[in-house]
Amino acid sequence: MDAHISIVVETESVRAGGQGPNTGNIWVVLGQEPFPMVGWNDFITVILDALASAVLRLVDGASRQEVVHFMEGPYELHLMRGAAGYLRMTARIRGKGAKASLVVSERRLVAAVHEAADVLLDACRKQGCWSIEADRLAVSSAALRVAEGPPQL
Hints:
By secondary structure, the protein is an alpha+beta fold. It has one domain: Secreted effector protein pipB2 fold, CATH 3.30.2450. 36% of the residues lie in helices and 35% in strands. It is built from three helices and eight strands; from the N terminus they run ββββαββββαα. The protein has helices at 44-60, 106-126, 132-148; strands at residues 5-15, 23-30, 33-35, 41-42, 65-69, 75-81, 86-93, 97-105. The strands form two sheets. Strands 1, 2, 3 and 4 form a four-stranded antiparallel β-sheet that branches. It is globular. The mean pLDDT is 92.
């Protein structure tokens, strides 16, 4: 059985960044553990693009280990290749160690990234706050779809 992983984006919280990237509530749920915390507000498109890009490098085999930093605070996600088709994902607080860790299939993590990206990009379109970061996320998400290959039957 695959571990539970979800990436939560609260579309009603997305705001145009003015001179900077869009902000909004984003957090990851590893098993039952929300990280950094429920309702975490940060540079939402930047973080999701960084996660999509990191997962792409791992799935493509270009990397064995990646770190995704939340922009605010000492929070980071460590991703490491594990057994064939699986990744270890660890939520860390710099200077304090791991808060949560799990092993998840590449397919499950890729699906979670796609779901969150689709929801966020749709919200950016509808709310008129499309940005260069949203362009980057759209490209990263599309590249991840290609790297993933066709769905398994």
